Amino acid sequence: MGTYTITRRKLNAFHRKQLKKVLNIKYPVKITNSSLYNKCNERPLSIFILESRWRLFGHILRRNSQISANQAMGGYFVKEGSKFKGRPLTTLPVDLNRDLSRIINSNLQLKSSHDLEHLRSIAQQRDEWTKLTARIREAAEASQSEH
């Protein structure tokens, strides 16, 4: 189990704890996670964060290519020098690629500037971007329900 999965689980557990406090549900009383989310009309916090990340990414991709955020994304894929030692850094492109890899039967990825340009072309069509974000959310929800 990776650091990303552990962090996501801790975040969701903290969120559920806060929801139980709001509903005044204490120790001997048990409630399933899905029942808790339904009762509060909520969903896991990690799913909300994932959707927000992809909405922001789409917004950035639709903006002018000269803004700092677009230049930083493009600069990420320019490889200079040798790799550093140690665990790979968790960066926004790494998280976005991890989200894309969850989609079944999809050849979408974010590993090069060519992939970034392909996603930029999808982002220009808002309805297509919304569909992509929904597919990513559904894949994330399915992977959470398996655990």
Automatic annotation (TrEMBL):
It comes from the Eukaryota. This is Uncharacterized protein.
